[in-house]
Amino acid sequence: MTREPRHVPGDAPPPGAAGGLAGAAGGPVAGAPLAPRVLPGEDPAAVAEAAALLRAGELVAFPTETVYGLGANALDAAAVARVFAAKDRPSFDPLIVHLADAAEVADHAVPADAADPRVGLLADRFWPGPLTLVLRRRDHVPGIVTAGLPTVGLRVPDHPVARALIRAAGVPVAAPSANRFGRVSPTRASHVVRGLGPRVRLVLDGGPCRVGVESTVVLLAEGRAALLRPGGVPAEAIEAVIGPLATPATGRAGTAALAPGSAGTHYAPGARVEIVDPFDPADRPRLVAKPGERLGLLAASAAGAAAARAAGGPFATVVVLAPDGDPVVVAARLFEALHELDAAGLDRIAAQPVPAVGLGRAVMDRLRRAAVGGQ
Question: Helices 327-342 and 359-370 meet at what angle, rounded to 10?
Fold first, then answer.
């Protein structure tokens, strides 16, 4: 179920369509540096500086085990508005609030939801880690964070830099992926710098992200149980702990979604992405480059790359996600590979599908949203 985004009294006005605040807070300021400062995330002084910026209402990019996040004080509506502006993000896409510890859920979710036994079971099993729980929010959580919805997504990230930053800041951190809205999510500090430039003051560099796809989002508000977005924790593992998860229908465009990253087109590089199975004879004609076309190949495995080369080409660039097709490695490498292909000046990318089970479900969700005119 979706609801129209609304303005909550006392909040900063939410940005409208994409880019609604860009002139005020998201774009470069005269005299500002052309690139953010990048500091080592393992340096306590760098973490302390980033925490001070968060408390002052500024934006900081930081690593998590999933992707790099663009963080703001989740309790400061004006700071959160700067996140929307920096990303050109539409106001109907809610943000996830990152916590330092599972005990903090009770601070931000209504007591009935925070005390739900399933919350404790999942937190014990998967936190810190790539799982977001959507619960009814307490009144102090600004409506701009939640796209006006009565629910908020909460998670405890599994990255030492992220948790050190949240603890040092002393506030929950609202953080979507640190990229322009709809583009490929960043899994390295260099991706953040290239994508956001001066729109972020500081980037903490924690190296490449281990999981590489965003968190799984599960709705548990008011006793419900639904998978809102596949991600770094397989749905099957969650169902083994709390039972079956429903899959709610997607809301219409322009309305608030219960989970971020639900737009039909998302995670997209500049080149057109098509999902093409090199082992399917019916798909093979799409593996042939048209005259003058720079065609790239995103292969899940070495066998997939070999089949694609035998059936088509020539390929300007080939990226193999995992030689043996290991789904953990495929997921971890997906966004980095899309960044690599995006930098190759391609016209089209043929992407090999993977079985939509376990982490493969998250991989296919990201590929389908990246695809324009694909499957």
Answer: 20
